[in-house]
Specification:
259 residues; alpha/beta; Rossmann fold; seven-stranded parallel sheet
């Protein structure tokens, strides 16, 4: 779209948006797409390779463990002092340990809940006051189709993703009741080609996707999506194009959960 001054405007022009877990996979694709469409993006991760990736994109990198409660108010203080506002938060950081009800350890259960559930809760709670003073905002919580169907090999993961789905709707209704102008939606991808899924393919079906002669062709043949498929949905939810949407759960799975 062009403005009166002839400058091309992006779909999230001028918005300040935090993306967690942005040093890899979906978070990195989200950050790239948001920057392309004019946002000022703050990428956070425990993996400091995110610093170079952020510099390449023209984004800011902050080292953060989303399960660390104290990291969140510190992040909001940094964002406010750097940009003076916050318009979007993409709670994307995650792990996907492979374990069933019979093999899952208590430590792995607690770590999975800490990153997904504590991390998403801390993030939403910390972001809302700054979004409120910025005039509103959009929170995007990364859930999964694992929240919608049973997955024997991902007991902790699917439980946590189901919690994120319910948390999202409760936050959405609270923000609507309070008239905060803050929207909160969840995204539910099926299998998308990222390091997380490459690891799962090796462990569960013995396929080393990245070692295939033509990984893209194999990816398509296996019905696996690409990170851009999810990043385009994140962009839409972060933009004002979705201004009438809150509490929604958006499935991106090539129809896997409806067959
Ligand atoms: N790839 C898929 O098919 C798929 C499907 C559904 C949902 N998801 C969800 O999308 C999100 C991103 O997954 P991905 O596939 O890009 O995985 P990925 O492993 O490629 O990336 C995950 C990122 O999260 C970071 N991270 C892990 N623990 C963290 C913590 N405590 N604090 C901050 N950062 C942390 C990692 O360092 C990594 O950079 C996850 O929440 C995942 O559950 C992925």
């Amino acid at each position: 779209m062009s403005s009166m001054d002839g400058r091309t405007r992006g779909r999230v022009d001028g918005k300040v948006i935090i993306v967690t877990g942005a040093a890899s996979g979906l978070g990195l694709a989200d950050a790239r797409r948001l920057v392309e469409e004019g946002a000022q993006v703050v990428m956070t991760d425990i993996d400091d390779r995110g610093a170079d990736l952020a510099a390449d994109l023209g984004a800011v990198f902050v080292h953060q463990d989303v399960a660390d409660e104290a990291s969140w108010p510190a992040l909001m203080t940094q964002v406010e002092s750097t940009f003076g506002r916050l318009d979007g938060l993409v709670n994307n950081a995650g792990i996907a340990p492979i374990a069933t009800i019979e093999s899952l350890t208590t430590d792995v259960w607690r770590k999975t809940m800490a990153i997904h559930l504590d991390g998403t809760f801390f993030g939403c709670r910390a972001a809302i006051p700054l979004m409120r003073t910025s005039g509103g905002g959009s929170i995007v919580n990364m859930s999964s189709t694992a929240a919608l169907i049973g997955l024997a090999s991902y007991l902790a993961y699917s439980t946590a993703k189901g919690g994120i789905r319910a948390m999202t709707k409760s936050i959405a209704i609270h923000c609507r009741q309070e008239g905060l102008g803050i929207r909160c939606n969840s995204i539910h991808p099926g299998s998308i080609s990222t390091p997380m899924v490459h690891h799962a393919l090796k462990e569960l079906v013995g396929v080393d996707l990245m070692a295939e002669e033509d990984p893209e062709q194999t990816r398509r043949a296996m019905g696996i999506g690409e990170p851009l498929d999810v990043a385009n949905m994140v962009l839409f939810l972060a933009s004002d194009e979705s201004k009438h949407m809150t509490g929604a759960e958006l499935v991106i799975d090539n129809g896997d959960t409806v067959v």
